[in-house]
Design a protein that fits this description.
Blueprint: H1 11-21, H2 23-30, E1 31-35, E2 39-44, E3 47-53, E4 57-59, E5 62-65, E6 68-72, E7 94-97, E8 100-103, E9 106-109, E10 117-128, E11 133-144, E12 151-165, E13 168-179, E14 184-187, E15 197-200, E16 209-211, E17 216-217, E18 229-233, E19 241-246, E20 256-258, E21 267-269, E22 276-277, E23 284-293, H3 298-310
Antiparallel strand pairs: 1-2, 2-3, 3-6, 4-5, 7-15, 8-9, 8-14, 10-11, 11-12, 12-13, 13-23, 14-22, 16-17, 16-18, 18-19, 19-23, 20-21
């Protein structure tokens, strides 16, 4: 009986074929987390993809913040996000927070403008995974520094990066908020806009436009009704841009989309101007995903959203 063909190959050739056929070997070389004094930078083939700001950063002592993503890079290396913009210096890259933080009936902080609060990032873990993704996980303590000086909330954040194609990638966020004190409440802005939650602050072109699964979406001062994802492009529906995805059906007191075509962030607003109480036995969990692309057809976005919801 003749031996199987692969058994007749020299051992060195077999090893080489296995290495070439193994995606995990290639992935381990392509995606690298680089730790710095300020946080973690993810690179792909030596090119930056995003930076997680872990240490506190401020503007001459004002608006101290940590626990956000900036810069976020396009596939061509262009920086997409803004930090300390002149019009709203408290905005910072990709961030998630609210104006109102209460303990019972006492207003203890305004995390949106970085007042009365510090974010202490702990236990950061990074991994490059066999499926070609890269994961960063961290514990973050929200510590009151104003009228209540104690640990108020424990956050768990997970950020997953994965290449979709040569011209697009996705960055997924899973966030859990667990109160550390009784009667902790959070709420959005105390007006009809009610903004708060997951908020990308990205550079906007002169002709920036917004599209959901049905058609163009026109920004308004108050939240607008739209689908579960918004494609923010340079103008036309299939222009380069950024898709913001979420799960509105799983958000408490979801308000709608706060969209701005000039000088502001974009926001899936919840819970609005009326604060909600966080439960220590059932932490608040929400997920969002960004799809960075050089031009996608609507069906491609629909397919990626379906994958996001099924994860």
């Amino acid at each position: 009986m003749m031996p199987a063909p692969h058994l007749m190959m020299p051992k060195a050739i077999l090893v080489l074929l296995c290495l070439l056929a193994s995606p995990c070997q290639l992935t381990a070389q392509q995606l690298v987390f680089e730790e710095t004094e300020d946080g973690w930078l993810l690179t792909e083939d030596g090119k930056p993809r995003y930076f997680y700001q872990a240490t506190e950063k401020s503007l001459d002592g004002l608006y101290p913040r940590a626990n956000y993503v900036h810069p976020l890079y396009h596939t061509n290396g262009e920086i997409l996000t803004e930090d300390f913009p002149e019009d709203h210096p408290h905005h910072r890259g990709i961030f998630w927070t609210w104006h109102q933080l209460w303990v019972n009936d006492q207003r203890v902080a305004d995390p949106w403008v970085c007042e009365g609060i510090r974010w202490e990032v702990k236990n950061v873990k990074t991994a490059v995974n066999p499926n070609g993704s890269a994961t960063l996980e961290a514990k973050v303590i929200w510590r009151g520094t104003g009228t209540v000086k104690k640990n108020l909330l424990e956050e768990t954040v997970r950020i997953d990066y994965q290449r979709v194609s040569s011209y697009s990638y996705k960055l997924s966020f899973a966030i859990q908020l667990k109160p550390l004190v009784k009667g902790l409440r959070l709420g959005g802005s105390e007006d009809a806009k009610g903004y708060g939650g997951f908020s990308p602050r990205v550079k906007l072109t002169e002709n920036a436009a917004f599209y959901d699964e049905n058609d163009a979406v026109i920004p308004q001062e108050i939240p607008v009704t739209a689908g579960a994802w918004i494609n923010l492009t340079e103008g036309d529906p299939e222009d380069p841009g950024l898709v913001i995805m979420g799960e509105p059906d799983k958000l408490p007191s979801y308000q709608g989309w706060i969209l701005r075509d000039k000088n502001s962030m974009q926001n899936m607003a919840f819970p609005g101007q009326n604060p909600i109480t966080l439960d220590r036995n059932a932490p608040l969990v929400f997920r969002n995903q960004l799809l960075v692309h050089q031009g996608l057809k609507k069906q491609e976005i629909v397919d990626q959203y379906r994958i996001f919801r099924n994860q």
